[in-house]
Structure formats: C-alpha cells, structure tokens
Amino acid sequence: MARVVVDVMLKPEILDPQGQAVANALPRLGVSDVASVRIGRRVEIEFEGEADLERAREIADKLLANPVIENFQVKVES
Amino acid sequence: MKVGVVTFPGSLDDRDAARAVRIAGGEAVRLWHADSDLHGVDAVVLPGGFSYGDYLRCGAIARFAPVMESIKKAASNGLPVLGICNGFQILCEAHLLPGALTRNQHLRFRNREQWVRVESSATAWTGDYQDGQEIYILIKNGEGCFVADEETLDMLEDNGQIVARYVHGNPNGSMRDIAAIRNEAGNVVGIMPHPEHAVEALTGPSLDGLGFFTSVLKHLSGGSEKE
To answer: What does the DSSP 8-state code read for residue B159?
Structure first.
C-alpha cells in the first residue's frame, strides 16, 4: 500500500471565516502573537499498488478540491 | 408541461418543489439521482437539502450522480434547470454556473424571511417578474456566501447574469449581494433563497416564489420570451 497525501487550502484571496473564528479565540488561551489562522483539509489516499501521483492529482482536481476557491498539493508519504 | 424534481440522498425540499410545480399548473415528475433517464421532462428543478450529507463540500458528490450527467447534457441543449439552495451549490460544483458557495461569513445557519430584488427577468425561470421587482421569500442556509474572482463577478454584471440580489440586508456575506445567477444562455438558474416555500398563504411568507414556476411553464409554451 502506498499513501498519497492531498492538502487542500482555500486560496489566499478567499475569506476563511472558520480560521478567523479560531484566531479570535486564541487570546482566550493567552496567545497574543498569532497574526492569522487559515483552515484547510488533509486527505489521505491509499493506493493498492504503487503511489500514483498523476492519478492523485486528477482525483484532487476533479473531486477533493474546488479549483474556483481552493488550491491543493499532493505528495507521497513515505 | 412536465417539470422533473430530482431527489438525491439527503434532499429535503423535493416534495415542496414538486408541490410548487403543481400549484403553478405543471406536472411534477420525480427523478431519482441514480437513474440517468430524465423521463421526457421539459425542465428540471434541483431542490434544497443536504445531498450526501454535504460531505467534502456542498454539492461536490451530487455532481457525479448519474442523473447529473444527463442534466448536464440536456442543459447544454437548452433544458431549463433551476437549482435552489443545495441545487445551486450542485450547479456550481458541476460547472453549469460559475463561482462557488461557501460558509456564511458569520458562520451561523441563517433561517429567516428575506427581501430579494429580481435583477433579470430574461431567464427561463423569471419571465413573470419585472426587472427590479422586490420579492419576499425564505432563506435557510449555512453555505450561501457566493464567491468568485473579480473578473468573473464583472463578467456576470456585464452580461446581465445576476438574476437576483439580497436587499435590506445581506444574510450571508455573498459578494455583490448575489442571491441568484444564470448561465449565459439563461436556461440554467441557481438561487440560494427558496421560492418553492413561498407559493401558498398557509405556509409561506408571501406568494412571491410562485413566479419561478409559472415563468418556466410559460417559457416552455413559448409565451414569455424576453431578451
């Protein structure tokens, strides 16, 4: 089995209200030196055989990420 | 005239949409997500709800349902399609409409009555309205914030593809107060508020939503072509 990790993040210009809500909660933990928080999604894909990065990219582009609002990166996890 | 209403796993408003079609004088045909046959319908409504539990992103999985393949093909040949709420999200995910719908800016589910201004009566679904007419219908969504890049927003404005805007307050942070858009041809419309819940005095805040359903019936019988 080979695992490919897909990281999906909102594009920088897209507002992330969840990240903002988390950032606004940090002072309550006594944390005051965080400038911003942005939240994304990590997806782990297990291939039956070899890790297929091309196929993973296709899956990410067609389903896991919405290219209108999100960017993604794929990497093989060793 | 036969108007199909699709049921996905997790659809909620399919019965209300079918009822609205009947009240408007059409025949409602229930379509099933796993059946690619459109059963000879003249138009299609994608109803509200939480298809596939809204997993991954709202509408992201419904887009791959067998019925959607047929709807995509038929829409490119002019089939009128109306996506309401989750249906709007599905149309964006299926690239039948530009942009995307994201989490409400205030992070809360918004469930209330809402004023909306119809900006374009030049669609298959809005011919019975006047441009600029304000209507009072329901909104109920957690992911109703329409976003697109500036270029796309300008294109929508320039082509008259913004079908409706929120007025007297934006309930979710939608860019340029967008509540509904259409494709270039005008046969595909996505709207976040719920016209199908405003068709009867007993249960709705007004009867203002009925126009979407009477419009498409007129459009199909060749009655109200406005360009």
So the answer is: T
- What residues does each domain of chain A span? 2-77
- The CATH number of the domain holding residue B45 is 3.40.50.880
Are the Cβ atoms of B103 and A18 closer than 8 angstroms? Answer: yes
Name the active-site residue from B85, B143, B145, B219.
B85
- Reported ipTM: 0.85
Nearest-by-Cβ selection for B105 from A13, A15, A68: A15
Cα separation of B103 and B47, whole Å? 19
Check if B33 is active-site.
Answer: no
* CA distance, residue A12 to nearest chain B CA (Å): 12
Give B93-147 as a DSSP string. HTTSSSSEEE--TT-S-EEEEEEEEE----STTTTTSPTT-EEEEEEEESS-EEE
Q: Is the Cβ pair A68, B92 closer than 8 Å?
A: yes
Please indicate whether, in this complex, the C-beta atoms of B107 and A13 are within 8 angstroms of each other: no
Pick the CATH number of A2-77 from 2.40.110.10, 3.90.1640.10, 3.30.1280.10, 3.10.310.10: 3.30.1280.10
pTM of the model: 0.93
Range of the domain at B57: 2-220
pLDDT in tens, B55-82: 999 999 999 999 999 999 999 999 999 9
Q: Among all chains, which residue has been given the structure tokens 């079908």?
A: B163
